[in-house]
């Protein structure tokens, strides 16, 4: 009887938290759309992923003003409210403060909306994780259903994945993030709870976004002739992804949290704005740069991809170092896609007969897998956000495997050094 009651509690909790995560994802998506409309006068889509029709001065002003506002809010939050609690710590049992978390996630979305160079996927995950904690507390206090500590950990991890799934319409990616990155235990129970929650959140998110690809790719199937290029791209992106991981980990560990935030973040935002005056692809979470790379048809775009990929990596790390918070998944996809295109354009004997966009997808998956140390999540994310077909499975898997081997060697070497 006790086990039956426990399972009922877990079942009901999965349904309720999934709805909360999905609704939270929709609200944050609407906030991003509103911010982009007010500050940049455009609506982001896969076909038009950046504000290229406004003047460079407009983009500079958006980032400068937005950077100042975000810096003041984050400075005030860290000075007066309870400290933020990360998802990994929350899964281990530390409580995420409600007001702090709400202010934190809203500011993240706002800063991405004005053009800040950082990912937005952290915000819906943190919001959903906090809501899961609140539900667990309410359930214990008012419904007299006591979930085990392990099931509470599972619900928080699954909620974070569901928050991601609701934004990017990617249920398998949300499941993999929950199980592979946060909960770190694969079982029938963890998969069922995580997948159910991500699927429901995806359904709710689709009411706003529909089931459209986040990145637009070409119609061609992947072929065996791409394998040599896949191996080279995987190896190079693996090494680069490891370097990027070390860089953003360093930035988060040495993040400015005192009064220096009031001038450092606006300065970085201003610097990003100066670059965006000429290269608007640097703005936002990385979708603009990734789509530019994946959509490239000729080698004429090579100089732009090289420059903006370097700028994107540097400004994302500096943004985190200066005191901002945000994700690194979509910036990783952007940098990796650019690297894949660079290799395909420069090493023509390997890329003969292979569409450029396929090199971009392989580079994105390989770079993402190493930077996040999550190969399964990276693979399924590229499938879901790009609506790839089955032909991509083998080359994407090979590329990610090559990347993980090299990336882990680089990470281990630096750790020992």
Please, could you describe this protein's structure?
The protein is mainly α and 417 residues long. The protein has 2 domains: 208 residues, Clc chloride channel; 193 residues, Clc chloride channel, CATH 1.10.3080. The protein contains 17 helices and no strands. Helix 9 packs antiparallel against helix 13 and helix 12 packs antiparallel against helix 13. The protein is globular and about 65 Å long. The protein starts with a helix and ends with a helix. The model has no long low-confidence stretch (mean pLDDT 94).
Topology:
Layout: H1 2-40, H2 56-80, H3 87-91, H4 98-113, H5 122-143, H6 149-168, H7 171-183, H8 188-209, H9 227-253, H10 261-278, H11 287-294, H12 302-321, H13 329-346, H14 348-351, H15 356-372, H16 375-386, H17 393-416
Helix pairs in contact: 1-4, 1-5, 1-6, 1-8, 2-4, 2-10, 4-5, 5-6, 6-7, 6-8, 7-8, 7-16, 9-12, 9-13, 9-15, 9-17, 10-12, 11-13, 12-13, 13-15, 15-16, 15-17, 16-17
């Amino acid at each position: 009887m006790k086990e039956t009651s426990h399972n009922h509690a877990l079942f009901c909790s999965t349904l309720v938290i999934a709805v909360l995560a999905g609704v939270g994802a929709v609200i944050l998506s609407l906030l991003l759309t509103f911010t982009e409309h007010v500050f940049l006068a455009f609506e982001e889509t896969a076909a038009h992923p950046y504000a290229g029709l406004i003047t460079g001065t407009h983009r500079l002003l958006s980032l400068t003003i937005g950077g100042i506002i975000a810096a003041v809010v984050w400075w005030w939050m860290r000075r007066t409210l309870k400290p933020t609690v990360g998802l990994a710590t929350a899964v281990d049992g530390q409580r995420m403060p409600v007001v702090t978390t709400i202010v934190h996630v809203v500011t993240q979305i706002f800063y991405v909306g004005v053009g800040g160079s950082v990912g937005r996927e952290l915000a819906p995950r943190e919001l959903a994780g906090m809501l899961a904690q609140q539900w667990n507390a309410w359930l214990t206090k008012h419904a007299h259903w006591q979930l085990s500590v392990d099931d509470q950990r599972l619900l928080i991890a699954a909620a974070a994945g569901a928050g991601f799934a609701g934004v990017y319409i990617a249920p398998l990616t949300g499941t993999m993030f929950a199980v592979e990155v946060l909960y770190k235990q694969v079982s029938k129970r963890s998969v069922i709870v995580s997948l159910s929650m991500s699927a429901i959140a995806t359904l709710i998110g689709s009411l706003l976004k529909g089931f459209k690809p986040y990145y637009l790719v070409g119609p061609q199937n992947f072929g065996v002739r791409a394998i040599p290029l896949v191996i080279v791209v995987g190896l190079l992106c693996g090494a680069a992804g490891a370097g990027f991981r070390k860089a953003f980990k360093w930035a988060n560990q040495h993040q400015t949290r005192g009064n220096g935030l009031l001038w450092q973040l606006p300065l970085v935002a201003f610097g990003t704005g100066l670059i965006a005056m000429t290269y608007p692809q640097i703005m936002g979470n990385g979708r603009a740069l990734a789509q530019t790379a994946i959509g490239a048809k000729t080698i004429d775009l090579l100089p732009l991809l090289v420059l903006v990929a370097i700028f994107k990596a540097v400004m994302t790390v500096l943004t985190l170092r200066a005191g901002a918070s945000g994700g690194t998944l979509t910036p990783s996809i952007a940098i990796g896609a650019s690297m894949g295109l660079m290799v395909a354009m420069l090493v023509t004997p390997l890329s003969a007969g292979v569409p450029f966009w396929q090199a971009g997808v392989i580079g994105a998956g390989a770079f993402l897998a190493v930077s996040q140390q999550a190969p399964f999540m990276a693979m399924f994310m590229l499938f879901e956000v790009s609506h790839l077909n089955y032909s991509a499975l083998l080359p994407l898997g090979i590329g990610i495997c090559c990347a993980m081997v090299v990336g882990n060697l680089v990470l281990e070497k630096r750790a020992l050094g």
